[in-house]
Amino acid sequence: MQKIKNNLSKNLIYFFVLIQILFDFLRTTEFVNIEVFNLSILELINTTFIILIFLITIFKNPHNIKKYILYFIVLIIYLGLHYYNTTLFNLSAYKNQNPNFLIESYHILITYGIPLLMLFSIMNTKVKKEDILKLLNYLALGISLVIIILNVFKLAKVAYGDGQVKYSIFNWFTYNGGNYEELTSKGWFFSTNQISAILFTLFPLTILSLLNEKKIINYVIAILQVIAMYMLGTKVATLGMFLSLVAIILINIFVPLIKGDKIEFKKNYPILIIFLLALLIFPISPLGYKYLKMETNKESIELTPDLEKITKLNCDSKQVINEEKDFIKEMVTKYQVEAHIPSYILNSYPVEYDYQYWCRFFQREEFPINDFRVMKNNILQSIYSRNNNKLDKYLGMGYSLGFTYNEQDYYYQFYIYGILGILVLVGPFYLISILGGILILKNFKLKLNVTNVTILMTPFMGLLVGFMSGHVLERTFPMIVVAIVTGLSYRYITETKKNA
């Protein structure tokens, strides 16, 4: 009977995780707009699966629920205080703010509640940790195959945008165009940043599986994942791949060194094979083409009398701004294209909302801005300052602020959820990972081994990538992966019985 229950949990977890690939496809279609009781059907299905997995896990270990009651109480208190703070928002700072407790709570619970329940489930499930590691290998393989196959048949979408690819991997050898992004592809996935972060997080586990079992299938998974990460063409995927390989090589060297054991350099041979293969592909890869063959000189705008005038304005003076409103609006309209101001940002934050911001925009050192994230962060900072509410620092201005996502997770979380929100919503992942590290240090003779250190590295990779990129800590799919690797690393460390 116990075996049947364990198989049920295993099959349910496997099905839930692997079906996320299909769900991510559906997020690019009209299916995502299908709702039941004004709730997305995709998120309802995810929520149902997660709650079912959690309940089955807790039913087998009812005493474990006590460990999480305090956290859920803290979460509920935070939701109440957070919503209260959104009702204090000054609409003169940003007119689109529309406080709504249900929308605010729903977004937080879907984005962070589901992954947290997954984390607690993985930590307490009776499903073998080796089976969960295999599941993550299958997930990496599935994502990689989708990206590669659709690229080969030119059915994929380019990494950034919805356009279909014109070039496949076979064109990498002969391409001589001026836009490296034409060589990229993301399959049919919703977000390049998400998939890059997921593959980046899973890559050390792929290599670890290869080190533990030098089977042909493990070599195949690793090579396919390298190719898929190159196809995405992002720094997170491409450069992160090399950083992961170097980190694992160092782990293989220093862990035995610290323990006084003999360093077995042969263990690094599979990593070196993958590293050399990746190095050979790099020059023809999309990001390699950008760095090695494309000019990356920053564009500049000739300083016209108009621009010279606006750079000399005192943007902090309300009197000056009132006198120059028409002029500032004219400058934004005139130089929108040259200054790389996307229309969706201008629609979200029109000149009339904040003349001072748009005045300062033309005085920034990074003007003209090519990185929209910088622009969005600056706008959020301006809204935050104009609202002038000390509680925003701790409780955030709210998801109902309605401003476009800035694609840098921790900056976004600070403005939307506040410091307390980050601690409550993301803190548990860090806390459990840090606890795993402490357990290794407290009993390093038993628990310090290559497997434990490598697996412990993965949740930190998934969490820290949010500083460099977006769509990681604010999206369900990558957060589910972060939850699983966090729970898995904790289990590997706590369940270690002998040196590996």
pLDDT < 50 runs, ≥5 residues? none
Shape: globular
Query: What does the radius of gyration come to?
Result: 25 Å
Q: What percentage of the residues does DSSP assign to strands (E)?
A: under 5%
Give the CA-CA distance, first to last residue.
31 Å
How would a crystallographer describe the biggest sheet?
A: 2 strands, antiparallel
- SSE string, helix = H, strand = E? HEEHHHHHHHHHHHHHHHHHHHHH
Q: Which structural class best describes the helix and strand composition? A: mainly alpha
Strand order of the largest sheet: 1-2
Mean pLDDT: 90
Count of helix runs: 22
Helicity level, as a percent range?
55-70%
**Overall number of strands:** 2
Overview of the structural elements:
It is a single chain. It is globular and about 75 Å long. It has helices spanning 2-26, 41-60, 66-86, 101-124, 129-152, 192-212, 216-232, 235-259, 269-281, 286-293, 305-311, 318-323, 325-334, 343-348, 355-361, 372-387, 392-395, 409-425, 427-442, 444-447, 450-464, 476-494, and strands at 35-36, 39-40. It is mainly α.
Short précis:
This protein has 500 residues and is mainly alpha-helical. It has helices at 2-26, 41-60, 66-86, 101-124, 129-152, 192-212, 216-232, 235-259, 269-281, 286-293, 305-311, 318-323, 325-334, 343-348, 355-361, 372-387, 392-395, 409-425, 427-442, 444-447, 450-464, 476-494; strands at 35-36, 39-40.
